[in-house]
Amino acid sequence: MTLIKQDDFIESVAAAFQYISYYHPKDYIQALGKAYELEESPAAKDAMAQILLNSRMCAMDHRPICQDTGIANLFVEIGMDIQWQATMSLEDMCNEGVRRAYNHPDNVLRASIVADPLGTRKNTGDNTPAVVHMKVVPGNTVSVHVAAKGGGSENKSKFVMLNPNDSLVDWVLKTVPTMGAGWCPPGILGIGVGGTAEMAMKLAKESLMQHIDIQDLIKRGPNDRAEELRIELYEKVNALGIGAQGLGGLTTVLDVKINHMPTHAASLPVAMIPNCAATRHAHFVLDGSGPSYIEPPKLDDWPDIAWAPDAQTKHVNLDNITDEEAQSWLPGDRLLLTGHMLTGRDAAHKRIADMFARGEALPDGVDFRNKFIYYVGPVDPVREEIVGPAGPTTATRMDKYTEMMLDKTGLLGMIGKAERGPAAIEAIKKHKATYLMAVGGAAYLVSKAIKESKLVAFEDLGMEAIREFYVEDMPVTVAVDAKGESVHQTGPAKWKSRIAGIPVIAG
């Protein structure tokens, strides 16, 4: 009988979530490095270079890969021949491990979990509770898979009840383009088939923690229908031309995973969940000998890729920018921003809308005239940092506020990640504003451009408070220009047509 101690379990969980906050899985880095070598789209290649450089920096400095350090997921398999030396429930032990990980003083992680989701949505402050799945299995160990799932990719989860003879491939190819780029491709698609609705979702989530092996599968050939579908979907999804960050390119997915189980004869439940450029998961086993710590990768595992702006990149001074200059930018133009900007995301926009509805003025110090707003919720700084990792959040969540902000505040433009919807694009066109895109999955790299940070308003909103940043050479791409043309529409369309005429080589 193996004795598993409460403190050993908690310490192992805490260590694992710290580990995945700054280490990409080795297989992901290698797959992305290969995709980078093969990529022909300049915009996608630039985005991949930023992601790879960011990943290496995080591995060296032990800081989060992404500012969204995710909702904590644990899959726990408990051996039937173990005995607990514990006073806490398993879920409470998991939550205590998450709590310690996210409040670690040397690498503070962002608390993103809100309680009362239909009401106050108040941040719990320590990223608990976690989502815990457990089962009892034969054996004398405790096996734990941990994953941190960011909101940008989790929000793109899809589910459908197909008829038994419907085409899974057709549904995936119809659905993936509707997901936009908020899940930060290139990543992995996890698909769960069978069981019941909730089981299909669990199967999809579990599949995302499997090793990336699509190239090995293609080389040896499929052994069953599920493997045939993996290859078909991998090739056909990449042929959509969505590309890195939705900018258009050869690689949208690095792998497609399919988990399946028996289901009712009348049913075909299908779930699809993407993993983003901040793919974070790990596995450890407790055997009674003490806490389990995951062996760090070697820096040699990262490809030797440097990122630098190209000769066509334009330098922009945000403090003296004119309407004429901003309106001269074209979709796909790459910029380096220097100057002051304000930050704000979901909660701040909601509060501003409520203030305007009551006829109130904005708080002192909040002046958006001729400024850009950056959709970001940064990680708290540690040591000498000005701000922690501060990558962009998905801009489409702010679409419903775009007309209000452009009409009532004098805002010049916005910075976020992924595409904008029709209403936001129409507002941008109407007000001759612009939308700039920073790379999702390069949060630590972006934070190095932030030289000053000052809290301006809504301190109670925590990471969603309004701050003023002073940045130097912050890299962005023009995603929607003043005429309303979107690179997230033109880029994938161009590369889909191009791929149709060339062999698809990706991942």
* E-strand count: 19
Label the overall shape. globular
Q: How large is the share of residues in beta strands?
A: 15-25%
Q: How far apart are the first and last residues' alpha carbons, in Å?
A: 45 Å
Helix content: 25-40%
User: Structural class given helices, strands, pairing?
Assistant: alpha/beta
**Mean pLDDT, as a whole number?**
95
Q: Radius of gyration over alpha carbons?
A: 23 Å
Question: Remind me, CATH topology of the largest domain?
Answer: fumarase
What is the CATH-assigned architecture of the largest domain?
A: Alpha-Beta Barrel
Which segments are poorly predicted (pLDDT under 50) over 5 or more consecutive residues?
none
Q: Give the strand order, joined by hyphens, for the main sheet.
A: 14-15-16-17-19
